[in-house]
Amino acid sequence: MHKKIKISILVMLLILLCTLFNGCMNHIKTISVNNKDYFNALKCDNDEYNLVISERSAVDNLNNGYAAQADELLAKSLMDSGGHYYWYPHYITTIVIAVDTGKVKENINSFNSLAGVEEKIYIDSDYYNYITASIGYSLKKENYRLDDAINYLKEMERNGRLSNSNTELPIWICTDTQAVKLKRGNKNIDIIIPNDGTLSFVQGIISPYPLCFENSLCNNINQNDLRTYNNASPLYPTQEKYSNAVIYTDYRHFNEQSTNVIKKMRRTVFEQRRYSTADGQEHILSAVFFITLTVLWIAVLGLRVINKRVKLSFIIIGSMLILWLTARCIKWQINSPMIERQLWYSYYLFQFGIATGLLYLTSVTDKPSSNKIIPLRILPFIVVELLLLCLIYTNDYHQLAFSFYNGIENGSSEYTYGIVYYLSMLCIGLQTFIVLLWLILRSIKSPNKLNIFYPVTFFLLIFLYTVAYVMRLPFAFEGDMTVVITFIILAFMEVCLRSSLIPTNTKYKNLFKNSPLKMEILNNYFEKEITANFDYCLTDKQKDSIIIGKNPIKLDENTLLFSKKISGGYVVWQDDISQLNKMYSNTKTTVEKLRATNALIRKEEKARRKYLQNEEKIDICNSLESEISDKLKLLSRLPEKMKNQSNNSLLTVKAALLLCYIKRRCNMFFIALEEKYFSSDELSMYIDELGSFAEYSKVKLLCTNNGNKKLDIEHANLMYEFMYNILDEATQTKCEYIFARTEISDKEISIKVISSTKINSNIFDKKFMISLEKSGGKIIEQNDDDNLGIWLLLKGVEKQ
């Protein structure tokens, strides 16, 4: 292997190791909050838990194993969807109107009264969902719609009286917690509870594990200017004034109406981001669109560029753009802060790749082929970029590239740039400047002097946009840098190809004329444009065949004529098949002999296969009968029982469960003949099917799993029979509900069942228990508060 390639591989492995081991920390019983006052209240007299301030959402923090600050609507939504969480409500926030009475003389007592006020109003973008819900509630009460509040706010913004950036305005629509902070700094602030109605939201901690808080927490909360159910700071309005504030509990309606609130506030109310992505969903869709566009552009590149090294440079640039967009797309879906940062750091790997790809393009265009894999002019840049990448990927340790204001664990959205970042931009800028000079020189030598306009415009756009983004100017920083850069680069390279700044089909005519093939290019009138060893004159009949696309045309016994329609005419070529004819003649006799021999072999094989198929069918039927024989006997006895009983509803349900069980066990039996593994999602569907029959005896089943994974087919059989026995017993004992949770990992597979009545392990027959013992599994009976549980535990099997 080339020495330079070995060095490059070693450096890339070093970067990978830094990525894998960077930022690994053990988060045990961590509580993440996004309110500093709440943080201070929890911090008092509490040394048991690790408290952090985080900008991430409650769902992201829960997925990372943290307890997190959330409102009651989100907590109920998570718990009702089957999540096992603990909810600890602590304080209440209410959407109010904060008015500086020293600057505002009008009487303000409701949201509707704001329409007649001349002063501008500040609305906090962090609470769009709460504010729009409260305004909608004041207009239409419980059945409010998001559009009601949007139209109300749009009308105010139409008069230029609404702002989401100027915090110095005399009127705020905000939470009462924010209003109290304002009041501490300005005694003229009057906190108004709208008399046309507003909403309150309970705030607290949702946790995946039990927590224990000090008895003094309520006092600590009040001392930190937060309002509890029965007490509040004197800065808050009196309890009587909160009579118009309703604690909202319909989380389904709230979530439905808050889905597009950010997008509608930005575009409809403030008329921002009309031509760029406005929320996370649009960020993802724009990335997918440009990934598809780049893939298609690379796909058609081979039809336009013959020079392999020029084509390679375009593929490098296009691949870097695709990977950059893909990393950006994945970054929006990742809940781990450490992985999210590493994906963010990888952006600079792709930016280096794009700059190096452009520089490589200047080194190979119109240059003779060379044995050097990496041209000398770009080798120093590659070495420097690898060193800079090592520093960027290890930024969590030294923060020389990005320095985070609140620390890495408390959010990475607020940061400043360090020396490594500026060195990286200098390296990319220097390579870009070299490419610019090269393109300007080519433009000067080009017959079309206007070509100089393209590279200058491109690099001017890149430079101005990058500077605006680094300076965080709103029109650049609020947009998506990855998408904008991708669009500019794709447009620029396409323009360079079409203007011949970057040649396409280099020396095509010389390559064609020196071809050893007998071929020629004809125009639409069958006049010769380029000829290579082709001296055959086409007849009118052959020309007609070429026009209709007939292929091939037989010229003589040993020659075929092929043709293809191209832009402006046709390409035709001859193919000598004399050797094929000779081979055909030699093999024809051998084929006839083999055909006779094969006929005898097939006859013997047919007889042997028929005998083996009969034997195999008998074995399969015997195996299937042994699998379900017990249940078939039980099913056959049910009709006799039904004759002796007047109320057969339970027996009918039992029969339906048995039939469903037998059908699915047969399916799983035949699947096991062909496959080793079984999908956990399909198993969940089978269990849900049993649950649908159990509902006829008023047994409600909720079954969840932790994702679609592969199960050993034997484990799947045990899990399905386990749930069948549970549901069968539940229908007989008048059980009201059953919650089942399937958890699958490489080490352990389990079904954890919680039911309203106790289900003992003695309901399982001896055959099932023997199979369970052979597989290394066990059944555990659990008592969980008022609910009764039974678990099936199996040893996990690592999938190949």
Number of strands: 24
Per DSSP, the total helix count is: 26
Terminal residue distance: 31 Å
Overall mean pLDDT stands at 76
Shape: flat
Strand content: 15-25%
Low-confidence parts: 15-27
Helix % is 40-55%
Sheet with most strands = 10 strands, mixed
Indicate the radius of gyration in whole angstroms. 37 Å
Oligomer: single chain
- Judged by helices, strands and strand pairing, the structural class is alpha+beta
Short recap of the structure:
The chain is an alpha+beta fold and 800 residues long. Helices cover 51% and strands 17% of the residues.
Structure explained in plain terms:
- The chain has 800 residues and is of the alpha+beta class.
- Helix content is 51%, strand content 17%.
- The strands form 5 sheets. Strands 1, 2, 3, 4, 5, 6, 7, 8, 9 and 10 form a 10-stranded mixed beta sheet that branches. Strands 14-13-17-16-15 form a 5-stranded antiparallel beta sheet.
- α13 (337-364) runs antiparallel to α14.
Feature tags:
alpha+beta, flat, 10-stranded mixed sheet, 24 strands, about 800 residues, 5-stranded antiparallel sheet
Chart the SSEs and their pairings:
Elements (H helix, E strand, L loop, with lengths): L2 H19 L8 E4 L2 H8 L6 E4 L4 H6 L3 E5 H9 L5 E15 L20 E3 L4 H13 L5 H13 L3 E2 L7 E5 H10 L3 E4 L5 E10 L9 H7 L21 E3 L3 H7 L3 H9 L10 H20 L8 H24 L5 H28 L14 H15 L1 H4 L3 E3 L10 E3 L1 H27 L7 H18 L3 H4 L3 H18 L9 H6 L4 E6 L4 E5 L7 H8 L5 E4 L2 E8 L2 E8 L1 H66 L5 H26 L2 E3 H15 L5 E6 L4 E3 H20 L4 E8 L3 E8 L10 H9 L3 E7 L2 E9 L5
Parallel strand pairs: 1-2, 1-3, 5-6, 5-7, 9-10, 19-21
Antiparallel strand pairs: 3-9, 4-7, 4-8, 4-9, 11-12, 13-14, 13-17, 15-16, 16-17, 18-20, 21-22, 22-24, 23-24
